[in-house]
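User: I'm writing a short report section on ligand binding and want a predicted complex to refer to. Could you take this sequence and D-MYO-inositol-1-phosphate and write out the structure as tokens? A short remark afterwards would be nice.
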Amino acid sequence: DGVTVTELRDLAVRLATAAGALVREGRPERVEVAATKSSEVDPVTVMDRASEDLLREMIAAERPDDAVLGEEGDDLPGTSGLTWVLDPIDGTVNYLYGVASWAVSVAVVAGPPEPASWTVLAGCVHSVADGRTWSAGLGEGATRDGVPVHVGAPASLSTSLVGTGFGYDAGRRREQAAVLARVLPEIRDIRRLGSAAIDLCLLADGSLDLYYERGLNPWDMAAGVVVATEAGAVVTGLRGRPAGNAMTVAGPAGLVGQLARILEEVDADGAGGVDHG
Ligand code: IPD
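Assistant: Sure. The structure tokens for the complex follow:
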């Protein structure tokens, strides 16, 4: 329909900012009240849903032919070939505890909304607690609060600050802990900040040198991927596979391969290369 990347990016920013304001106002004061995200009616789930509902209403009003894929709602089909990929609160545990690292993540992709086959056209990650906003459009570069950002140039793996994250499943966490035990002695230090979307943006502006995580969903990564790649990062999986749920490794070209090789050695994506017999 002739929409430009710039227009899509502007809309992503407006969407993320509006949902961020809603969710900031609604944040429960006390953790005891909020309980955990285990019940269908806890306040975090309620705010997740409210944020996603607002995003979907705004998209329906401005881009009625686009599809929507969101963490909290049913997939909405579309006819335009574009899909909005929404994480209404990325970093829900931080949101629950009042730790500043949580975001609304909004991206728009062309093609099937899966990391292996999509082209992310534009995205915005709005870190609500501190008001920082990263955005990018394909071919336009990436910015934080309007200022262009670029990945850092760490000299070596041993001087690299590496971000990662863990899933919620205990079995998966045991595997992730074993991978971390292999990675940690090779790097400057590790950060588990609690929002994959923000992690990818911190990588984009050089606040982290590298990032890896197994188990990401499309909505955790879509906006962060376009911000990171437009800032000069390579974002990939292991053994030449694309980034995605099995593994996402991101960083400057020179170092991403070094980290990927260590992750491959320990079969960090669980996708083979090691015979577990
Ligand atoms: C989670 C965060 C976290 C990452 C998890 C995600 P959520 O998203 O991005 O940093 O380690 O893999 O599921 O549940 O807060 O939207």
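A remark for your report: The mean pLDDT is 93. The longest helix spans residues 5-25.
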